[in-house]
Design goal:
Elements lengths: L7 H26 L10 H57 L5 E6 L1 H4 L6 E6 L5 E5 L1 E6 L15 E6 L9 E5 L5 H15 L6 E6 L2 E6 L6 E3 L19 E3 L19 E6 L2 E6 L7 H8 L4 E6 L2 E6 L5 E5 L2 H6 L7 E4 L15 E4 L2 H10 L7 E6 L2 E6 L5 E4 L6 E2 L7 E3 L3 H23 L13 E4 L7 E4 L25 H54 L3 H36 L1
Parallel strand pairs: 1-21
Antiparallel strand pairs: 1-19, 2-3, 2-20, 4-8, 4-17, 5-6, 5-9, 7-8, 10-14, 11-12, 11-15, 13-14, 15-16, 18-19, 20-22, 23-24
Helix pairs in contact: 1-10, 2-8, 2-9
């Protein structure tokens, strides 16, 4: 083609057409791809920068799938916890229903003293039901009633002394001592004993004192052996012995004035007084020499007998009552033979005691109300059975889900203390059924946890979920349960129960407390998963936005402005048409030479 010569005009127009064609091809490429930079040749800086941004956006896009799966795994775990929470709440409802149920079974039995008898101490024996072994309650009180006691004036003890009472359950087995005074009657001494027993508290052993026909009666409601002793035991009718002789209360003058008929003018104005109970006599010395007859006469009244002794006054009381000698000063006390004191108490008198015969311990059948009170007050029976008065019969309530066996009741339903195997009270079937329901619900806890998996990961079974947040792996989160422990009934402290576990309201309250703790634990774990879910969702949104930002940044560097490129193409097409016309005109100039040749 080098042999062909083109005119300057044609060559100029040809170059213009070629340039326009090249630009049109480039513009059409941009329109077809939508990019103004399609290769590194177009714009190396923009091309490689956009490639880097798009690569990072692609890497982050792959992490989005991991986050989506993580979110679904967390939602699966949350669904499991929600179901477990509802199950625990159903278990609470079951226990509350058991707590409110009071359909315990009862039976009533007759109590007749003749049927029970008093030859030997009999008992009711309880077994089964809420009892691990067996427990008994006595049908008899053991009692000791005194005889021929309180022989003192006005039915008093007549002696200062002690009364001791001993029983196995009383005061830890140590004898209880009560002080008695001469003037105590059976009533006042019984009150003293009961007051001492009340101060022992729960260790009183069921012992009490009362008065029967003027004599002191000691009773053990536990039916235990009673021992009554002490220095005043005979005088209160509780120690067998022969009658004792009365001893006057008396004082013999010692170290006093040997001859009260001598001149006693030095004692003028001083007073001696004798007192016993509410009675008193006194004498005030005058200035006379021999005052002995007047002194003896004045003091020998109100039951006092006074004589002029060898070393002072000899004073006594035939009624053995205690008395006090008082003087206006110690010098008079010395002269009267009572010592250098102003007061002297005399307590050495005793009244005669009666002949006390042998005291035998008797078995007294308890009254119905006594038996009911003893059963309900016995710590070994409380919470296991309950007793009440059912129109003259003893009603026993079995506070258990298991059958209660009672020995000591005959086939006719009468309490006799000796029969066996005749009485049975069924257990509470409602609470027993609720125990089964509780266990069925408990089984569902573990089954629910087992099923709360997604894509092979079960957070409730202790699996660990790791979610990576950036393309370099430097930002991530590890999600698991607290201490990576499994969420199951055992770890929540929820165990199978037996029917007898629902016997006691206190045990049910404890189980409710355990379930409350389990619920709090599950809710805490649910809250933790919720927090983790929020983090992952926030990172998911962040990653979406970040991908969009990266892709937008890359597009800004490479994408073409379609409106601009379309306008460019139109302009190039116009230019191409004009260039073609110009080339045609240039060619026509060359053809005019040919016309001349022709």
């Amino acid at each position: 083609m080098g042999d062909i010569s083109l005119s300057k005009a044609v060559r100029s127009n040809l170059l213009s057409l070629q340039s326009t064609a090249t630009m049109m091809a480039k513009t059409q490429e941009r329109l077809s791809t939508g990019n103004k930079v399609n290769s590194a040749l177009d714009n190396p800086t923009n091309f490689f920068t956009a490639s880097g941004l798009n690569s990072r956006a692609g890497d982050m896009g792959q992490l989005m799938d991991s986050m989506a799966n993580g979110i679904q795994t967390l939602e699966a775990a949350d669904n499991g916890l929600t179901s477990i929470t509802k199950t625990l709440e159903s278990m609470q409802s079951t226990l509350r229903q058991a707590r409110q149920d009071k359909s315990f079974q009862t039976q009533s039995f007759s109590l007749d003293a003749t049927t029970v008898g008093s030859a030997s101490a009999e008992v009711l024996t309880f077994s089964g039901g809420a009892f691990d072994g067996s427990a008994t309650t006595k049908l008899h009180n053991s009692a000791k009633t005194g005889n021929n006691g309180f022989a003192g004036t006005g039915g008093t003890v007549g002696i200062n002394g002690t009364v001791t009472i001993q029983a196995d359950s009383l005061n830890g087995g140590t004898a209880l001592s009560v002080d008695a005074v001469k003037t105590d009657t059976a009533a006042t001494l019984a009150a003293k004993i009961n007051d001492e027993l009340s101060q022992v508290g729960s260790g009183n052993g069921g012992v009490n004192a009362s008065v029967v026909d003027g004599q002191l009666k000691i009773v053990s409601t536990k039916g235990e052996n009673l021992t009554v002793a002490g220095t005043a035991a005979q005088y209160v009718g509780h120690s067998a012995a022969a009658a004792t002789t009365q001893a006057d209360s008396s004082h013999t003058g010692t170290g006093g004035t040997a001859d009260l008929t001598a001149d006693l003018t030095a004692l003028a104005g001083k007073t001696i007084t004798l007192r016993s109970g509410g009675a008193s006599v006194d004498y005030t010395f005058a200035g006379a020499a021999d005052q002995s007859p007047d002194l003896v006469a004045a003091l020998s009244a109100e039951g006092f007998t006074v004589t002029d002794g060898a070393a002072g006054l000899d004073i006594s009381r035939a009624d053995s009552a205690d008395f006090t000698i008082e003087t206006s000063d110690a010098a008079l006390g010395t002269a009267m033979g009572i010592g250098a004191v102003t007061s002297l108490a005399v307590t050495n008198g005793n009244v005669a005691s009666g002949t006390v015969t042998t005291i035998s311990q008797a078995n007294e059948v308890k009254t119905l109300d006594q038996l009911v009170s003893d059963i309900n007050g016995d710590a070994a029976l409380q919470g296991k059975i309950r007793a009440s008065n059912d129109n003259g019969k003893v009603r026993i309530e079995n506070l258990s889900t298991k059958a209660l066996d009672i020995d000591g009741i005959n086939s006719s339903g009468a309490i006799d203390g000796g029969s066996t195997g005749a009485a049975k009270i069924l257990g509470n079937s409602v609470r027993a059924d609720l125990a089964d329901q509780f266990n069925e619900l408990r089984d569902q806890l573990d089954k629910t946890a087992d099923d709360a998996s997604f894509n092979g990961i079960n957070l409730l079974r202790g699996d660990n979920l790791k979610i990576t947040f950036n393309e370099t792996g430097t930002s991530s989160i590890d999600i698991s349960t607290k201490n990576s422990e499994q969420v199951n009934a055992a770890n929540m402290g929820v165990f199978d129960i037996k029917a007898e576990d629902l016997d006691s309201d206190a045990t049910i309250d404890q189980l409710l407390g355990d379930l409350k703790s389990s619920l709090n634990s599950v809710r805490s774990q649910s809250s933790a998963f919720g927090s983790n879910l929020s983090i992952v969702q926030n990172r998911q949104d962040f990653t979406k936005n970040m991908i969009n930002t990266l892709q937008t940044g890359g597009a800004n560097l490479t994408l073409a402005d379609m409106n601009e490129e379309a306008a460019n193409l139109l302009a190039l097409q116009t230019r191409q048409s004009l260039s073609s016309s110009s080339l045609s005109l240039a060619s026509q100039a060359d053809q005019s030479v040919l016309q001349l040749i022709r």
